[in-house]
Write a structure and sequence with these properties.
Strands 3-2-1-4-5-6-7 form a 7-stranded parallel sheet, sandwiched between helices. With 455 residues, the chain is of the alpha/beta class. The protein binds uridine-5'-diphosphate. Uridine-5'-diphosphate binds next to helix 2, helix 14 and helix 15. This is Glycosyltransferase.
Length: 455
């Protein structure tokens, strides 16, 4: 009888409460995880901010509860410095999250654990203080998260902030193939603020998390995953690639943007592997000069292209208007859209390569689609991902530090039809097969559910 009483609370505690960070690259993997946990028999409540709130109508079987935060302008402005924005979001959401979670815990006895985005250090601490087990979902790669955990050591060894330019190309001990220049950095952000943010994230995970979830898989990051488990002494579950595991709505449906689906018919009219798909994700912005060199480079390459030019993604005069004087060839060969149904585009046989900023979602999506990539990292973890694309997995080429039209045209032709491009395409094909095998097995998700039920 005693045993039954001891077991009883576990038998009824079977709800998971999720708290995503309100940005595209974070909402999608969290909602994919939500659908996967629901499909495995767990009840799911999504706590969310009013800012960039997800659409509950797209997830009829999940419960949604807003935390009704009141945020300062710097937390929500697209012009805000990213580190300042993350700090403001954390401090502005801490109390509303704590109150919403406390109310939920009073209302429901079935909560097994909370999963918060790994950037929500304040929510990690708040959930821990309420005594409920909490897991952190990292939406970046294991390599990136590992490099953040190593930051204090790297700082002591003089790698961050970088003191001497000439160390840029030096390999970072314990983090190879990363060089000093590949370590996460955010131009324009205060280095101390960035370091402070990283330290808070790492401290919160160490102090409060009963485990870490990563949107990655063993075939691409086994040593990096092992290093994280060793460093944190808690389980790390590589539950990715989530967009492929997810049985629910198509991941594009999680979007904050409306995809222009007409580009799929445009792709239909092209031969296999003839089109370059160009997208720099949902956040990155480029200077007007870079944008123009990209346009002229695409024009000079002679390659058909589908280019996502997100409104507001170009800094400086002329906004996101195409440069004057581009020839008719450019306009008839290319299609420009404000937002694409990326997963369907990458899966389309007409797409021959993917020019990407190497956000982690886009990188994983490219890997799983088996397309070679042209890497143009802009900030944050994109440099880490780009280095893995080009130097660990061999599935892509760098555009290069300086974006000029002649170089762009040459790299585009190289990835579409050159020898290096062919090698990357073959490696991409192999990696896609490994991803397919991992999706078919999905051990990590089963292990995660068992772990959640044991908490
Ligand atoms: N995306 C999309 N259509 C676009 C551009 C991007 O659906 O035109 C999606 C893409 O599939 C990915 C996400 O937006 O899932 C971007 O996330 P990522 O981590 O690559 O970059 P971030 O936007 O966070 O920099």
């Amino acid at each position: 009888a005693t045993q039954e009483i001891e077991k009883a609370p576990h038998a009824v505690r079977r709800r998971v409460v999720l708290f995503p960070l309100p940005f595209q690259g974070h909402l999608s993997p969290m909602l994919q995880l939500a659908e996967l946990l629901r499909a495995r028999g767990l009840a799911v409540t999504v706590l969310h901010t009013d800012f960039n709130a997800p659409d509950p109508a797209r997830h009829p079987e999940l419960a949604f509860v807003s935390i009704h935060e009141a945020l300062p302008h710097e937390a929500t402005s697209p012009d805000a410095d990213i580190v300042a924005q993350l700090l403001a979001l954390n401090s502005g959401c801490e109390a509303p999250f704590r109150e919403a979670l406390a109310s939920l815990l009073l209302l429901r006895e079935d909560v097994a654990c909370v999963v918060v985005d790994g950037q929500w250090y304040a929510a990690l601490g708040a959930a821990g203080a309420l005594g409920v087990p909490v897991l952190a979902l990292r939406t970046d790669s294991a390599a990136t998260f590992g490099s953040l955990l190593a930051f204090p050591r790297l700082r002591d060894a003089g790698y961050v902030p970088i003191k001497e330019e000439r160390r840029d190309d030096e390999l970072v001990p314990e983090l190879e193939p990363l060089r000093v220049r590949d370590l996460i950095r955010i131009d324009g952000s205060d280095v101390d603020a960035l370091r402070g943010f990283i330290a808070r994230v790492a401290d919160a995970v160490r102090a409060s998390a009963s485990g870490v979830l990563l949107n990655s898989f063993d075939a691409i990051e086994a040593p990096e995953l092992a290093r994280i488990e060793k460093e944190l002494s808690c389980p790390a579950f590589a539950v990715g690639p989530l967009h492929r595991m997810c049985p629910g709505p198509a991941p594009a449906e999680h979007g904050l943007h409306v995809p222009d689906r007409r580009c799929l018919a445009w792709l239909d009219a092209h031969p296999p592997r003839s089109v370059l798909y160009v997208s720099l994700g949902s956040v990155a912005r480029v200077d007007r000069g870079v944008f123009e060199e990209m346009a002229w480079g695409l024009a000079g390459s002679g390659v058909p292209f589908l280019w996502v030019v997100r409104p507001g993604s170009v800094r400086g005069g002329g906004a996101d208007e195409l440069p004057n004087g581009l020839d008719e060839g450019f306009r008839s060969r290319g299609k420009v859209v404000a937002w694409a149904p990326q997963l369907e585009v990458l899966a389309h046989e007409a797409v021959g390569a993917f020019w990407t900023h190497c956000g982690w979602n886009s990188t994983l999506e490219g890997v799983c689609a088996g397309v070679p990539m042209l890497a143009q990292p802009c900030f944050a973890d994109q440099t880490v991902n780009a280095r893995y694309v080009t130097h660990r997995w061999g599935v892509g080429l760098e555009v290069g530090d300086v974006i000029d039209r002649a170089r762009v045209a040459a790299r585009v032709r190289m990835v579409m039809a050159g020898e290096e491009g062919d090698r990357a395409r073959e490696r991409a094909r192999q990696l896609k097969l490994q991803a397919d095998q991992c999706v078919a097995a999905s051990f990590a998700l089963d292990n995660l559910v068992q772990y959640v039920l044991s908490l």
